[in-house]
Amino acid sequence: MEKNFNPFSLPSCFVRTKDDSKSKPEPPPPRQLELQPYRQRLPDAPPPQRRSPPPKRALLPYEYPPPSGRPSMFTQLPAEIILLIVEPVGLLQRVRVMRTCRYLHQVLEPNLYRHLNLLDPNLYRRSGRLHLALHSRPALISQILTYRGPIFPHKHGELLWNLRIGEDPRWSIGLAVFQKAVNIRDLYFTDYINWTAGFQLAPYREAVDHMVLDRLVIQVRGDFVDVVQVLRKQPELTRLELLWGGGGWENLEATDVPKLRSLSATLETATLIVPGRPVEEVNLLPSQGVRRLHEELLECFSRSTRVVRKFEMKLYDPFDEDAVRDTIQAVARNLPAIEDLTIYVGGKISGRM
Question: Which of 63, 133, 170, 213 could form an SS bridge with 59, CB 3.0 to 4.6 Å?
Answer without folding.
Answer: 63
